[in-house]
Hints:
Blueprint: E1 9-11, E2 14-16, H1 21-36, E3 44-49, H2 50-60, H3 65-70, E4 89-90, E5 95-97, E6 107-108, E7 118-122, H4 123-133, E8 135-136, E9 140-146, E10 153-156, E11 161-167, E12 173-178, H5 184-195, E13 202-206, E14 232-238, E15 247-249, E16 255-257, E17 283-286, E18 293-299, H6 325-335, H7 338-344, H8 363-377, H9 386-395, H10 407-421, H11 441-455, H12 459-464, E19 466-473, E20 480-487, E21 490-492, E22 499-508, E23 516-523, H13 528-538, E24 545-553, E25 556-560, E26 576-583, H14 584-587, E27 590-598, H15 601-606, E28 611-612, E29 617-621, H16 628-639, E30 682-684, E31 698-702, E32 710-711, E33 716-718, E34 723-730, H17 732-737, E35 764-766, H18 767-775, E36 778-779, E37 786-788, E38 793-795, E39 798-805, E40 809-814, E41 817-819, E42 824-826, E43 830-832, E44 838-839, E45 853-863, E46 870-877, E47 882-887, E48 890-894, E49 904-911
Parallel strand pairs: 4-8, 11-14, 21-40, 22-26, 27-34, 35-43
Antiparallel strand pairs: 1-2, 3-7, 3-9, 5-6, 9-10, 11-12, 13-14, 15-16, 17-18, 19-20, 19-39, 22-23, 24-25, 24-26, 27-28, 27-29, 30-33, 31-32, 31-34, 36-39, 37-38, 40-49, 41-42, 44-45, 45-46, 45-49, 46-47, 47-48
Helix pairs in contact: 1-4, 6-10, 8-9, 8-10
Amino acid sequence: MKIPNSGFLIENGRTYLPCTPDEEKRIVHDLINEAELHLREGNLYYVVSYRWFSRWEKYVGQASDVEQLAGSLDLDAVTPGIADRPGPIDNSDIVESETGCDGEDLDLIRTLVEGSDYVLLPQRAWEKLLQWYSGGPALPRKMISQGHSNRKQFNVEVYPLRLRLIDSRDGNEFILSLSKKASLHELKEKVCALRGIEQEKVSLWDYFSKQKHTQLIASHKTLEESHLQMDQEILLELQVDETSPRIGKDSTGNQLALVTIEPSRSSTSIAGGPSMSNGHSSSYSLNSGPGVTTNSYIDIGFAANNSVRREGSGLAGLQNLGNTCFMNSALQCLVHTPPLVEYFLQDYSDEINIENPLGMRGELAIAFGELLRKMWSSGRTTIAPRAFKGKVALFAPQFSGYNQHDSQELLAFLLDGLHEDLNRVKQKPYFEMKDWNGEPDDEVAEVCWRNHKARNDSVIVDVCQGQYKSTLVCPICGKISVTFDPFMYLTLPLPSTVTRSMNVTIFYADGSGLPMPYTVSVLKNGHCRDLIQALSAACCLRSDEVLLLAEVYEHKIYRLFENHFELLTSIKDEDHIVAYRFPEKGARKRKLEVIHRERLSMEFLKGSSGKYFGAPLITFLEEDQPSGTDIEAAVAKVLSPLKTASSSTVVHGGQDNGYFSEADGEPSASCNGQPEAKDQVMENVEHGEESTQELSLKLFLTDNGYGSCKPVFKDSVVKFGNRIRVFLDWSEKEQKLYDSSYLKDIPEVYHKSSFTAKKTRQEAVSLFSCLEAFLTEEPLGPDDMWYCPNCKEHRQATKKLDLWMLPEILVFHLKRFSYSRYLKNKLDTFVDFPIHNLDLNKYVKKGDGESYLYELYAISNHYGGLGGGHYTAFAKLIDDNRWYNFDDSRVSPVNESDVKTSAAYVLFYRRVKVAQKVGGLGEA
Length: 924
């Protein structure tokens, strides 16, 4: 029962009032935190629409990431109790259909992303929200554990495994929903209950791509370990008694003939999938427990790599298992890496390391080797890498499921995992880190590499790992730290050649000149440092001056760009950007921000706070604990360039400064009774009988959020705060004293009205410019400080990288994707990279006389944007010296001239041997 129009529940004559927003927030957060402390398999979580949940967050006083991304400054929107109370929970926007009555059977839209489309709430938190708001539908999901030993993770299975059961008796199809951690025994029980058949009479088959693979015998083996995929078909057959006629009944009870399909002749391979098409199979003994391997018996099955190659070897496509194009692209690049092909087509069983705690017990290396052999022995047959995907998901749960991922991130995991699985070092020795002081680089690099090889020795290290020199310099004491570190690939930034025009107004913080607008041209994807450098040149900034960059929003300082490495893409064309020109000494002192308010005489009488106008001014204070007089003097100084010609006839002071005294009806604290500042402490010091001597300028102290207001008097003393903020009230007389037009009409960064759209040439940069940007010296970011052993403090040191030694296989990762709290971006910049004759000799600092000349042989491509992109690969077959396009299961030849596109994401180069003539890879 409810009170009409109230929503308050009544039970047994008692009214249950809803919680306050603060109470709701506290209760839900406590329940979420409690659930985080007790993570275990089987815990129940509920999927909740982010659209509804963000409204609830706003109601209880939380700013969502979406609001922060938009730069919302609506303080009321994040004040508890101001936003409207959300209606009933509504999950309809994330549900595909509501045909099932049980939330576990409801289909969620497949492309949902946690944090932007839905949130996961533990059971008790969901029950509280449901009690307060009702609604639904409820979408319960269980927590499962994934991975092994130290890699084990707890994840909520948002998308249970959906299987399509085909009944061989009548061809009817049914949908089953089970956890990927459910056993084959549970699967058989569910099938038999659904079809009303005794378990003893049922045979289930892995019916992937309408082909019978292996029989799914009831056991404790999980569906995940059986390599069953989302939306995959399984076949139901009845076991026929040989003494009885081969007649059964369909789902309607009609008799029909049963045709038993012969099971696949393929046996289980070392990767857990079907054996290779040439009849060779691999055996790997298993001890107790599923998936646990030993080295007691390994028979790879190939004595020489030529025995597995057929016509069309290396041209096998990989079937897309559901958003697995990222994996297919990465795999095609690796399986066309010549040294890896040679290695995995031979007997590598002696090098499998099952004891390495950092490895995957050899299972990843075996699965990769098995897949590579299939691809090189199956001609042009398309292969479904189900077993390999299962192994990857087992040891790297972040790649489980069917969401799109990053091909480079998978490559990094595979290279590292293959190395650890094939590490020839069984017992890694310990080496203490040494602080090198002045030793020759050659000696230091040799010792570092020798120590690295003593712990890491595999085919991946042999062909894929290089070494670079890292130099850190402390900006305070000048301490130099040099280290030599191994690398598996190089992540190169993409320096932009596209520029943008930016309008910025520069103010003098010391009041020595008038504000002046400047228009400068900077790199579109540059940093704030680039903008400051361009402005410094435009305004002829002296060597003893600095610029402080800021954004003005609604006539207040919205943010200061103190991190000079913040991307300029965070500044929009419609923003208002200003810079304050400080003497170098003044920049290190306490800042004073002056916000302007316009009030007419009648507004003073009414106690109105007036309206804001113009751009705020920032100056500096010499005193550590400035008085009101000091603050007024600083404000007057920074205003001095704005004085009008008639200002000399107007005298400041007493009652003649255009303000009304208390006797005239103006309250001394004319800010509508707002509370005083919380982040700054201001006192009045007694001076005889008068303790609140008024200033000539009407100034009011405020806080960080500009919400409080307290008048400043001559004897007021501000004791705390690195940045003091004051309101300056402008009366009609101040408008005559100063020309406020210099503070108004601050231009936008870029005014679009005068912009005429036209087609521009595609932006292009060279691979060499990307490499040089990677090797450029730059200071570390504020979040990446270096601990200086001399200063015993974390310092923002400068860092310089140099290439010391390059590997046989050199991988370049082009940094097209950038992520921050407020911005996600992809660069489609065209990178002009050499296919032949990539000469890196001048970049390598090790003077060993080696030649560092490289040839391109594979590319991982990414097309599209962040949300719905697609990966493909280009790879060169060494045997026939031709390039091919690998687009999942489709493989087609491609001209060499067509492999250079703006989609290139990861580049694979092979080092050319000195004796080899440039132009081919056949003898490398």
